[in-house]
């Protein structure tokens, strides 16, 4: 299959421009999704559980919390893609990430458990998107009060993760206590 074409501006809320822009031109977002687990494992796989509880500033999430946030978001975006791909026209509610993170219990978990869950969720996401017929990518629905296509969701997923990988590399890891 050819790489997915980028979504048009009418296929998503402009809020997601940042994430979609983090999928380089000409890059298949599903291929980017396939490569990100290795990047993530290289960045955090060597950390201890104590190190993974590090937050770079007061009030910021810990590394573990950020990873679980990435999982929650991936599940929600994939769920939206499934419903829209299946012609579900019911508006899909948004979610408040700042409520999800404390309720996740991420810091009480082992980092390896989170990374294993990450691998499972990513495999399921890739399998889901691989199951879609080409025409499903242009189906439109409503999420968080705005139109969105399956195609746009396929770009938002790796873009959202690329955003957080950048934060991990620029704000967390350089300031990690020894």
From TrEMBL:
Domain DinB-like intervals: 32-167
Coiled-coil stretches: none
SUPFAM superfamilies: DinB/YfiT-like putative metalloenzymes (SSF109854)
InterPro entries, A to Z: DinB-like (IPR024775), DinB/YfiT-like (IPR034660)
Family matches, as Gene3D superfamilies: dinb family like domain
Name of protein: DinB family protein
């Amino acid at each position: 299959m050819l790489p997915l074409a980028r979504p048009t501006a009418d296929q998503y809320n402009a809020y997601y421009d940042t994430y979609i822009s983090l999928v380089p031109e000409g890059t298949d977002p599903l291929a980017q999704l396939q490569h990100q687990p290795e990047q993530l494992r290289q960045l955090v796989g060597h950390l201890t559980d104590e190190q993974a509880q590090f937050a770079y500033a007061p009030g910021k999430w810990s590394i573990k919390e950020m990873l679980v946030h990435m999982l929650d978001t991936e599940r929600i975006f994939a769920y939206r893609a499934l419903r829209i791909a299946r012609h579900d026209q019911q508006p899909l509610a948004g979610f408040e990430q700042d409520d999800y993170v404390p309720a996740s219990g991420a810091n009480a978990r082992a980092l390896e458990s989170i990374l294993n869950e990450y691998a499972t969720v990513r495999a399921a996401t890739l399998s889901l998107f691989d199951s879609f017929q080409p025409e499903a990518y242009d189906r439109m629905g409503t999420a968080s009060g705005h139109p969105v296509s399956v195609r746009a969701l396929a770009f938002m997923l790796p873009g959202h993760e690329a955003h957080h990988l950048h934060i991990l590399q620029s704000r967390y890891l350089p300031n990690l206590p020894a």
